[in-house]
Each structure stands twice: as C-alpha cells, then as structure tokens.
Amino acid sequence: MLNSNSLMNITIHLNEISTHIAEQIKNQSEQVQLIYTEKQKTLEKLQKSLEKMNQLISKMCDKQLPQRINQFQILQNQQYKYELQIEEDLELPCYRNRIFQIKLRLVQNQKTIINSNNLLVELQIWTYDKIPKKLTHNNKNQSIFKGCQQTIIKKGYGSLSRIQIKEVSSHFPKGAFLMVILPIDDGAVIGDESKFLIKKEWIKPLIINDVAVKAKKFSDRHNPYYVKSDGTINIQEQE
C-alpha cells in the first residue's frame, strides 16, 4: 500500500502535469485566437479593398457610358449659329483605298460666311453601334484613314482632297458608317461675329448618314446614291 508521502507526491506530480497541460491549452488557445484575429483583420482589409475597387469600377462605368452616348448626341442636338455643308453633291458608295474628295463651305442661312480666322476641320468615322463610337483603327490596330483627314476652312471654303478609307463598312453594324466633319481648332479666337472671327463651338458639324464603303468597284454592281449639301441622302437619285 502507498503511504501518505507517496500519495502526496503523486498528487503534487499530477497537479504539476495538470497545470502544465492547462498552460499548454491556454497558450494554444491564445495562439489560435491570435491567428483567427489576424485572419479576420486580413479579411476585413480585403473586403474594404474589394468595396473600393467596386466603387471605382462603378464610377468609371457611370462616367464612360454617358460620355460615349452624349458625345455624339451633343454633336446632333446642340444649338449652332453656322454650319458646315458640302459644296458639291457627294457620290456614294465609297470604295476601300479609292481616293475621293469632299469640298466644304461655311454657311449661315444658306449664305456662305467668309471667316477671317482659319478653322481646322477633321473627318471622323462613327459606327452604328447602339452606343455610337468613333472608329480610328481596324482590328489589326491599323489606321482606317490614309491621305487627307484634316483641312482648313479659309474665307468660307475648304476641301478634303485626298481621302482614303481602308476599312469596309460591311464588317460593322448596319453595314454602313456615319461620316462626321467637324471643326477642331479655331485659332483660339475669342469670337467676334462683326469681324467674322468664328469660334468652333458655333459651327454645326456636317453629319452624313449611311456611308457605305465597299471593297471593289464593279461597273455592273455600282449603284450610286448622292449626299446633298446638308448631308442628307438624295432619295430620288438613289432610286
């Protein structure tokens, strides 16, 4: 039989073991709690970063889409004092890489305005997407233009004399383009109508609808239609 001293020693030893185990459990519990806390902090940081990223993406989308919509709508709907017109009827369709020209004049109420400052105008091609977009390069990242894309309106007249379009319109919605000619620089004039110093914001761009650009010209398939001075299609000629 165990004497009282032996029992006491065993009890002390068991207490020491129990205390040691309790300390280990406590330490491990604290470590687990620390790891859990760190993970929670990390998750919270990631969540905040994700929220900020989503907010940024949302703001970018909110800004970009209206810009694309309004950019073309403003061209059409803004109030203008003057407008660009075609001096001579333009025959369509165009043909890829074939040179053509557009003669322009600056008018007010169908009267040519002899502007004193030089007005730089630019030819642009827009698509018939649901949200129209300006087209500058093809799928190979090559410019769709070759030759003249800009000209000066000087004393009421100007000419885009060597235009070449290197992309056919059949690859795009509606099988046609919107052709836009608009002023992009007015020489930084303040604007003085009495001196015929005309600001670019006063000039209505020329917008030509349904511009077909085809690959090749076959005489038996060439059915011309014509654009009038204001950019509208001459239906009678087209028929």
SSE sequence, one letter per element: HEEEEEEEEEEEEEEEEH
CATH class of the largest domain: Mainly Beta
Q: N- to C-terminal separation?
A: 125 Å
User: Whole-number average pLDDT?
Assistant: 84
The share of residues in helices is 25-40%
- CATH fold name of the largest domain, please? Immunoglobulin-like
By CATH, the architecture of the largest domain is named Sandwich
Category from helices, strands and their pairing: alpha+beta
Keywords: Coiled coil
Structure description:
The chain contains two helices and 16 strands. The chain has 239 residues and is α+β, with helices and mostly antiparallel strands. The chain folds into two domains: 77 residues; 157 residues, Immunoglobulin-like, CATH 2.60.40. The strands form four sheets. Strands 1, 4, 5, 8, 10 and 12 form a six-stranded mixed β-sheet that branches. A hairpin with a 7-residue loop joins strand 6 and strand 7. The protein starts with a helix and ends with a helix. The mean pLDDT is 84.
Describe the structure in brief:
This protein is of the alpha+beta class and 239 residues long. It has 2 domains: 1-77; 82-238, Sandwich (Immunoglobulin-like), CATH 2.60.40.
Architecture blueprint of SSEs:
Elements: H1 4-77, E1 82-86, E2 90-92, E3 94-95, E4 100-108, E5 111-112, E6 119-126, E7 134-135, E8 145-147, E9 150-153, E10 157-165, E11 177-185, E12 203-204, E13 206-211, E14 213-214, E15 225-227, E16 233-234, H2 235-238
